[in-house]
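Structure, all three chains, one model.
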Amino acid sequence: MRLRDRLHDLVLLCLCLGMGWWLWEGVAAIDDPEYIIGPAAYYLVNTAKETGAVNVVAAILFDYRGIDTLGEATVIYTTVCGVAMLFSKSKYKKSSAGLSFIARRGISFVVPFLFMYGSAIILMGHLSPGGGFQGGAVFATITILFCIVFGSSFEASRISPKTKETIESLGGLLFVFIGGVGLLAGAGFLANTAAGFPRGQVGNFLSAGTIPLLNVAVGMKVGAGLSTIFYSMVKVLDLEFNEQLTEVMDNDKN
Amino acid sequence: MIKISYATAIFVFCVGLYTILSKRNLFKTVIGLTIMEAGALMLIVTAGYVHGGVPPLIPIEGQAVNPLPHAFTLTAIVIGASDVALALALVIKVHRRYGTVDLDKIRGLKE
Amino acid sequence: MTLVLAVVFPLSCAFLIPLLHLYGGALLRKFLPVMGLGTLALTLAAALSGFNDYALSFFGGWPARLGVVFVVDSLSSIFLILVAFGSGISLLYSYDRMGTGPWRFYVIFFLLQASMNGVLLTGDLFNMFVFYEIFSLTAYLLVSYSLTWQAVEAGLKYLVMGTVGAFFILLGAAYAFIANKTLNMAALAVSLPQIPKATLVVIAACMVVGLSLKAGAFPFHFWLPDAHSSALTAVSALLSGVVIKVSVYALIRISLLFFGDPLPTVFDVITALGVISLLGGHLMAFKQQDIKRLLAYSTVAQIGYIMIGAGMGTAMGIGAALFHSVNHMLMKSGLFMTAGHLAEEMKTRNISHMRGLFAHRKGLVLAFTVLAAAIVGVPPLNGFMSKWYLVMASVEKGNLLAALSLVFGTVISASYYLRVLHAFYAPGDGPKKYKDPRCPLAVAVVLSGCCVVLGLLPFFYPIGDIFAEVGAKALDVKNYVAAVLLQ
């Protein structure tokens, strides 16, 4: 059995490397141009005067191709809804104990700086690399740290799962609402300066029209969402395996 | 030097595919999904590189790299992470029933 | 504007439902029919706006080469009508079964609707990948919704295989970007013929493999029987009838736009995959004892029929494939709903134990008979019409192997559907537990009525010509490119 499995794995490996060779042939045939062609050239030249943002990637994500970002935020929303649904019937019997006194005190010093860091990443997404997704992940990390250091019941009592759900839905609705303003103004869904949002001075904090607002909406959604995913998975793992098995058998009886 | 990056990205993609197809442990299958996604995204980011390029932040001194792959990669990383999160949630539920994540012992996923 | 609303309205409904559930419990029951009807109306409006001429919608006011564009042409509008009708029926059935208690189900349902409309409407390759991933994730979640162990395992297998397919599509898109530095479908249709042959072959192979994994063609179908059989009844009908067709649309659109002229062997590969799926699906269905797995393998075979039609590459072939997609949605939704309801009542899915149903549930068994006759291909019904067009298209192209396998497949499917009907009509005890059959009966009667009407329609009205014209417009790449890029 071992030899047959090993042979099987060897054949698979040869097939995968053969596929890799064929993929390499596909990419080796293309020469690299010396300069940038396509829409990227347009973006690099015209972003400052059309959108007012400094970060060209943020302008692409939230202005030129904003509907992709709405789709991406929806992917997170779907995953959060699904994970919450998969673990909805299990309740934690006892919370984890958390870490020692030194860890708790240390975290209490660090958390305010983490808040500032996350907010800065979100709000200055149009000025420097960053944006809603990255800042939202930092906010989710704060709640995850609470879970680990203080125990999951403490974290649930500070920010209840219902509040997280509300924040997430409100973030999504805010994104759609900002897009709808553009639609009503006749310039197309998710239009930025064409719909009348103020362009501002390039490099200022208050500039680039809708981009800071969309960053805030996405940050709310991603932060609440990732936090909900972690909490849903952690509340199951607090049990030992034998207790989980009795819980499974109770669920099967119902 | 871009060719070496392309070769690495393709190699990582194939390693990911091999991991998914041949490993018997469900967690390793999920790790293979992550590796495969990383390979495909490395390929698309390398496509935007220009020799001697600077990050695409205005004001641009010299030649900036192509910002479009950066936007695609940010989106695709989030999508891949969501897929993996859902896969891990399902693996946890399967583990709760069988007590193991070894594919040989789990009947339903055999064929 | 309806194009944008067809995606944004279901999306905002999905964002709104948790707030309604948390802060106003009874409001959900009032708003849900409004949301469902609104989505149906907007999807149909989007379909009709583009049926004769191209309808476009630019996001943010940016032209097509800079931003994302939504395009409706007659190919998209046929699939939009299919999606609207199929998901409307499923929503009605699940609302009747479950009420508004499981609110997360409706959130996932509306997200599925929004993303299917997005895939069908978009004109940008990366945007299609994003919407494709949303609808795949919702499909995985709907499969494991019932939280039985079978459903969770089926959902995991579907997820792993579906995500591998998605990454192949992403790899194909990455190669297209490397070659052309743009990902707008019309711009790619213009510039793909000029890239080196090796790269074009890689893009084609990655796309075909990825999309066949998602659509359930034969060498990659291993997730389909488990997923479609262990889901809830309304979800099985939705998955087999509607969700698979969106993958087929993506395959048809990408192969026609990108590989129509420069690489015609892609169409031969698609036809070959179709023939293998047909034979494999029918042969595997022949030895099944579980009725829902039998219907799921039958879906694999019918996808083979559609792929044979799409792989012909002629206007008549594509028109026949579209006609068969519409018919299959009607027939398979009806079959799954009827069989699922009967299986729930008999508390078993084993065919030989489902006896004596004719005496107790005449209406449902008669509707099942009509639908089974339609899917086998008995003459005056719609299945026969679309298979006839498929055979004529493959004979016209000269592909006799496909025509012979179509006929052979019909014979095998007749044998296993007869086995099911034999069990239903045999004498025996009826269902032990009675559930209210009014809604499934109404749905089944409507669907079998549609089958009869669509079967008789070609005698009075040239339906085949309408579909062939849609196929011809889909083949017309130059008009598509001109409509999108020259706005």
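Chain A has ten helices and no strands.
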